[in-house]
Write a structure and sequence with these properties.
- By secondary structure, this protein is of the alpha+beta class.
- It has two domains: 1-96 and 230-262, PDZ domain (Pdz3 Domain, Roll), CATH 2.30.42; 102-186, PDZ domain (Pdz3 Domain), CATH 2.30.42.10.
- The chain contains six helices and 13 strands.
- The chain has helices at 52-55, 77-84, 130-133, 155-162, 176-179, 182-186, and strands spanning 5-6, 22-28, 37-40, 43-47, 63-67, 70-71, 90-96, 102-108, 115-118, 121-125, 141-145, 148-149, 168-174.
- The chain has a five-stranded antiparallel β-sheet with strand order 1-2-7-5-6, with no helix packed on it.
- Strand 3 and strand 4 (43-47) form a beta hairpin.
- The radius of gyration is 20 Å and the shape is elongated.
- The two termini are 34 Å apart.
Length: 262
């Protein structure tokens, strides 16, 4: 296992660089075929238990900053995929934000979620509904449904899963701007959060009083398709077949030794 090393400021790229954040470097050696992490755009959203990422203490909400000295932030989707699945050793630089977003998971056993969303952002939480009872707030973002990246799913796949069998496992992200005081952050008075997550909202079970209720019309969920793939980068272990979404767990795998591009 390679211990994280503080990155030097001398060879950094300047885009969005903030010295208040923590930057560290790791090397995935020739024996590392899978990185064992999943990300959206540049941000790590989940980590495989026992994998390379977990063993090297990479945390959810860390960001991939550079690969082999090249800015990961400015790469295209195709370039990111090629870089992560390229030959080892692989030198990676990560950014750990001073103020981290928080992630939480909830299992839903109810038929109706009691919330509306646009793209992947919650825009309305219904009074008395499942979402409100379980601490979901306007501004939270849907990241995964049943361990599948939300932004990799088509509209039909999303609606099918939301209306499908229960329990349904949902992962949400609460951006730092939604749960920390902006003035305190600006003045440097907010806590420095390197891995501490907000307490997971308490899951509440519905209790039935046995009283007859008038059937309500079916809840409608607002949906807008994700932005073009260029803005919603999701890397997987293998390239998806034509017509298929990019799904599953990110386990960036190095090519076989004799598998050379012609």
């Amino acid at each position: 296992m390679t211990s994280p090393q503080k990155a030097s400021n001398a060879d950094r790229h300047d885009e969005e660089f903030d010295p208040a954040n923590f930057y560290y470097e790791l090397t995935a050696g020739k024996d590392v075929t899978k990185l064992g992490m999943r990300y959206v755009k540049t941000e790590i959203v989940s980590i495989a238990p026992g994998g390379w990422a977990e063993k090297n203490k990479i945390e959810i909400d860390d960001e991939i900053w550079e690969i082999n000295g090249k800015s990961f932030v400015t790469m295209t989707q195709s370039q990111r995929l090629d870089a992560l699945t390229g030959p080892r050793p692989l030198n990676l630089k990560f950014k750990r934000p001073k103020i981290k977003d928080s992630y939480y998971e909830i299992e839903c056993h109810d038929v109706r979620l009691g919330m509306r969303y646009v793209r992947n952002t919650i825009t309305e939480v219904k009074d008395g509904g499942w979402a409100l009872k379980n601490g979901v707030k306007v501004g939270d973002q849907l990241i995964q449904l049943n361990d599948r990246l939300f932004e990799s799913l088509t509209e039909d796949q999303v609606l099918k899963m939301l209306a499908g069998p229960r329990p349904l496992k949902l992962q949400f992200k609460r951006p730092a701007s939604e749960h920390l005081d902006k003035v305190a952050i600006k003045e440097g008075e907010a806590m420095t959060n390197h891995g501490a997550a907000l307490e997971k909202p308490t899951e509440t079970k519905n209790e039935s009083d046995g009283a007859a209720k008038k059937e309500e019309p079916e809840e409608k969920v607002e949906y807008q398709a994700p932005a073009p793939a260029e803005d919603n980068v999701i890397v997987e272990e293998e390239r998806a077949p034509a017509g298929g979404g990019l799904m599953g767990f990110l386990c960036c795998q190095a090519p076989a030794k004799n598998n050379k591009k012609k």
